[in-house]
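Appendix B, record 7
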Amino acid sequence: MNNIQTQAKNKFALLDKSILKRNGLELDYDLNNPISNLEILNDYTNDYHEFFEDPFVVSLVAKNASVMTYTLKDKECLSLNESEIFNSIVIVNVEKNANAALFIESVASVTNSAILIICEDYSKFELVDLNSVSGQYCVYQYYKESSMGNSILISDSKSVNYSNFKSFLIGRKAEHNFNVFTKNSNSKSYKFITNHFKSSDCKGEIWIDGVLDSGAYSKIIGSINIDLSAGNTDSYMKKEIILLDDNSKLDCVPALEIKTNDVKAGHGVSVSKLDNQKLFYMMSRGLDENTVVNLVIDGLLFKNIDKIQNENVKTSIISYFEC
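Structure tokens (predicted):
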């Protein structure tokens, strides 16, 4: 047992799992991988300590998860599915000046993984995540000087799902945007989205579109964190959530932590039912109610799909929803 696993086991023993469970994080699972390569993580613990302090990552390390590493060069796109990275910690390094992408597809079974993404100076990176299965995972992204990132997260789940996406802008003039679409039907969903600004002159936006139906429960926490050293930050967050029935419930929390002056940090939240006047207007044109609802959902969905720059990934996602 190496040092990092010993530390993780000690942390894991002290975690208050009852509190974590109330926030959707279930750590009571079996994991035992005799070939884990945990020693690889020692090279990353100091520089990316937030990742290794996440309770889910702590549990994976303590339980001997496998570790995979990838390096993305210019014009490369890495595709991963949940079966390839199940019970694993994945580290993705995006090279300096590279324009690269990562496509995570979880549509077949159960997901259970943690992903660390490191974008070097002047790189451009696109993360596309498609999830329609149960399980839990976290994705931490770090952006160095003048690097740019765009994360398109699409969730269409009918089962319990926990996800935690955090980006850390650690280099000057870094930029990262989240574009999120989440649809939940008769299920529980816990989604945490964070832009954390640690350096000056950075930019970042969070846009979340959500649809709840059939007695679904969703907890969505969007966060903007601006450190003392992150002057001249320009950030914004907007959530638009539609409740399609009276039994669905939403806990929607906008969280802003701003520790310095000379920044822009705004947010807005809209939670509503489908507009009855618009519904009546569309139905007066010969459309039934179910068709109108689907058109509204498709409008929100494809608004986010259109943000995807990689054409092959965009085609794959469109094909999935057209099936």
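Remarks on this record: The two ends are 47 Å apart (CA to CA). Residues 23 and 276 are 33 Å apart (CA to CA).
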